[in-house]
């Protein structure tokens, strides 16, 4: 029992909760819904400026391509909400793409299961090492990032692996269902299931509790280690699925693809307003984050197509970085305000 | 079970516990009746935390027996204790700040419908639970936006909803304002009316009398008193806690106490200093060449006052003068630059840099002065380190030994030397002898006296009254953040200090400082 | 009270030169294995190849060691290398005004890119020290945007050049030793000296060892943190220049790609605490050598480069785990 308790605890005690709440909700709204507003504005901008922007072809291919990132972002969001991080998703996807491409002559189910399974396996290794050996998630997933890349290159023999075109495997990435790309269906399903899981299951609430205060979560009797393990498993499996879609969509298993996807996913999750230190987040906003980052690239293409200005594709990573910077600064400012208020 | 109805709810008997050979509890005892609010008090290191941790399964006991609700129990984790009906409300609340009030109550046991969480039901039930405790709060609000009192209520509501029979509150009022304390007391009385027992750990004596039925006093790992609250007055409580007899303490000979050096300019002068909830109105002075003792119960604001002077805590009001100059600090670096030193009570967290050597730890503050063009003059460093190692008789295998390998007393000496080797005018020591063996204790205290004799102004926070009576020229007593009494010369006696701490006898709040 | 025996420990290496015994053993075993089983291992050429390949990693890893010693991390080193590497050819390709004078052009082409990378370090350091953003995230921003900037500068094109002075940076030799190896050794020695002998070095370790205690001892914790990120940025900038000098071409897409992992691995294997408070600059050099030798050994025996990645992952994990157990 120490005499020195945090001194500012008292300031909060003196302040009434309500005014802070009102003030906070404005910030909160900006943080969680700001990305949605930006997304809508960007869509309006695109729709008024370019023909065909809202055309079926553009919308569908946008969804088809970005669903891979969407899947990864869902898994990443859960991991980040526990206060962890998963840097291995990109190369895990590459590994899954190679494995599924190698197995693609055997139909649809086997390569799909093998790809997802490989991802899940990497996720399990992450989860086990993090919860059992208590090594920082960042280090562990960095190592599996390397290992998965190495394995992908080994299996693929250092080159991309063509998929079989007559086994039906390519349907996973290129086919449609009810007029909608199959990957988009998968992505939508992942987001809906993720949202339900987060908001309406004990698992989801535990994820947030762990990120909010792991020690307290343990004392409350929540199965901390099991839930953390499961989030990494989930993240790995979703990365595996994204890898299968990659192979199927582009007709090849690509051992060198996926490098940097983890950062795209992290950026999307953060831009979506999820707290990087864990404990708070939303799957819906993560979706907005993914679409927003995807749209930036899309609009750059259109802009170049118009020929007025010529921004190279390389601008996209600069713009993403700037986005991330703005969001991170906003978050830091908010945290500082809460700190000053005594939280 | 029927025969148990009149038996106490909790009986802990002959509890012993040692940490690496050092006894922390020696046949400690704690008995709590049903529907009873029970005060548990004792100095730092008296063993009350250890006793509670053994009860809740955070520590394993070496010996003794615990019976709870008529059964022998042996919890091995706090979680088991919780499920067995014993909940603890910690000082640093063990809740999830970012989650809503309702979630914090129901995490892990959320009401479900069709397998999914039934939010409306959860909010309804949470509201009902809080209403039963007389609290109206927005249960959808994230917890960290509620005030501290409400957060505590949420913790209590969680305990109640888990059918706790015994709720342990560890310094629950330390960060509450008066109104919030009232709310807490109402809830405690409500719990009692519902048949729940409460262990109340606090050092605000008035509060104990306001809400507790019985009290257990611990000292040196033993239970030294178990009485009804009404059978003990405040002074008795303090004397029992500190282990002092009232009349037996002899005032020091007048010759021992040098006349206060009011003629000389005060090194430090505090005037109505205010900071947060802990320091309300601290006014006193420290002169060159004197040791001023700062006394008070836990939570009286002693540490916080010193930290304000050192620039580590924010000052909210009042004036702080250093050698006649009004000062305010941005950071400890400012204070250090003006010759102010502070030795924290928490060596591990705020003192040592564990991976660094004795030499590096010792010269950390002085280092900028040992540098030419950014390069450390290693020879000068070595000389100073050697000088202080021998002067303070620091037992180390050499200056290059890592400080974390030293004993507590020697670590403390290194930290003391860290300040002594640089030029300072005011040395503030926060419990300088805590966790240090007897021999080293006397050494450190004598050293402090030598320093004062050499002209240093010393402010010493100590819970051991004999350290104050033996070494301080003046003693300032803080109570609830107010400096309520200043004793000097022959007045300095354990009786007078305790009376001022307890707000009994001659010392009253109105008296203030002369 | 314990009796202290004056037992002078075995004459050991000075602290700054300490390397985990496991790492040293690993290095020795690798060398022995290669001496026995790898053809032409004991030749100046093999030595030069390995040292040249390792030098950029080591230079970056020295900066990373300092950052990690304060309890931080810098993921942006590769991107900062790309910025500096992309910038240099643009400068000595300009050939206008004063830049047309070869000496001035060369100096500006060296100084400006390093400065640019240092500015990146300022951004990292400000985010970490001033805004208290976790280092992983703070440096992630430049990890993403930095390479983008480099690509935008060059439009993603490969820039080839022939510039005698610059070529020498990459391929020149002094007394038969490649210049960049000497540069690397100089940087290692200076950094080890800084950590050991200067106020700044002590402050880095104190900040990483116990930030609260350091603050209470009057150490300017925020400035120390800012400084290490700037140094790390500057060293990354220098490493970027070396890479393009070796190739006589700059490809913003590839300069420094993935080097943050190699650097972190070298630091971890070398015995620097990833949680801060202990730095082993020489250990970092040994760590980098181990990782380089593993790759070389595998390659020389026909094991594909890809397998080296898996092995590298294993080495980092084991090193970190051992470090954790030791504490």
From TrEMBL, chain A:
Write down any Gene Ontology CC term: plasma membrane
Primary localization:
membrane
Q: Which UniProt keywords apply?
A: Cell membrane, Membrane, Transmembrane, Transmembrane helix
Q: Does the keyword Membrane apply?
A: yes
User: Where is the protein situated, by its record's location annotation?
Assistant: Cell membrane
- The UniProt record lists the keyword Transmembrane: yes
Per the record, a Pfam family?
BPD_transp_2
Q: Which domain of life is it from?
A: Bacteria
GO function terms (MF aspect): transmembrane transporter activity
Q: What is this protein called?
A: Ribose transport system permease protein RbsC
Origin species: Amantichitinum ursilacus
UniProtKB/TrEMBL annotation, chain B:
User: Where does the ABC transporter domain lie?
Assistant: 10-245, 263-505
Q: Which domain of life is it from?
A: Bacteria
Annotated Gene Ontology MF terms?
ATP binding; ATP hydrolysis activity
Looking up Pfam families in the UniProt record yields:
ABC_tran
Membrane topology is: Peripheral membrane protein
Q: What is its main location?
A: membrane
Compartment(s) of residence: Cell membrane
Q: Which UniProt keywords apply?
A: ATP-binding, Cell membrane, Hydrolase, Membrane, Nucleotide-binding, Repeat, Sugar transport, Translocase, Transport
Instruction: Give the CC-aspect GO terms.
Output: plasma membrane
Entry keyword Lyase = no
Q: Does the keyword Nucleotide-binding apply?
A: yes
Q: What is its EC number?
A: 3.6.3.17
Name of this protein: Ribose import ATP-binding protein RbsA
Species for this entry:
Amantichitinum ursilacus
Q: What is the gene name?
A: rbsA_3
From TrEMBL, chain C:
Compartments, record wording:
Cell membrane
Q: Which InterPro entries did the record assign?
A: ABC_transp_permease
This protein's source sits in the domain of life called: Bacteria
Cellular component annotations (GO), alphabetically ordered: plasma membrane
Xref: CDD domains: TM_PBP1_transp_AraH_like
Q: How does it sit in the membrane?
A: Multi-pass membrane protein
| Keywords, comma-separated and alphabetical | Cell membrane, Membrane, Transmembrane, Transmembrane helix
Protein's name according to its UniProt entry: Ribose transport system permease protein RbsC
Which species does the entry assign this protein to?
Amantichitinum ursilacus
